[in-house]
Design goal:
It is built from 2 helices and no strands. It is mainly α and about 150 residues long. It has one domain: Helix Hairpins.
């Protein structure tokens, strides 16, 4: 029996490499989203601390300059939060698009892999059929040979 040789092996490797690259890019996007979520949580915590400090100052001795500096700090934190939220939204959109790209590359790879399996099965079926035909020919030839020898 001849061994099976997949003629599109280079294409299979190419599809696998593209799939791996897409997977690593998707994983990087997931990490970026997680990092920005952490950053957003920290910024919100800082904003809450400044807000609570400002409320405490307003209850106690009231100094306009302290309240004004705390208010500007609060405004800076709000601006920082808005910036991080925008970055997070963009990172999530990138993550979704990279996920779709990965799924596309994965399905392309699996299609070539499935083609390889089908060709392999067809090859083995064809080779098996050839062997069966050869065996039937040998059995038929032996039968005829024995019949001729018995008549002689």
């Amino acid at each position: 029996m001849k061994s099976f040789v997949f003629k599109l092996k280079a294409l299979l490797r190419l599809k696998e490499n593209k799939r791996d690259v897409a997977l690593s890019q998707f994983a990087g996007s997931v990490q970026e989203v997680e990092k920005l979520n952490t950053k957003l949580t920290e910024a919100r915590d800082r904003q809450e601390v400044v807000f609570q400090l400002m409320q405490e100052r307003q209850k106690g001795t009231f100094r306009g300059q302290q309240i004004q500096s705390l208010q500007s700090s609060l405004d800076l934190e709000r601006e920082c939060i808005s910036k991080i939220e925008l970055e997070l939204k963009q990172a999530q959109e990138i993550k979704v698009s990279r996920r779709e790209i990965f799924l596309s590359k994965d399905s392309e790879y699996k299609a070539v892999l499935k083609l390889q399996e089908k060709q392999k099965e067809a090859h083995y079926f064809q080779e098996n059929s050839k062997e069966q035909k050869e065996l039937e020919d040998i059995i038929g030839a032996r039968f005829l040979f024995q019949r001729i020898n018995r008549q002689a």
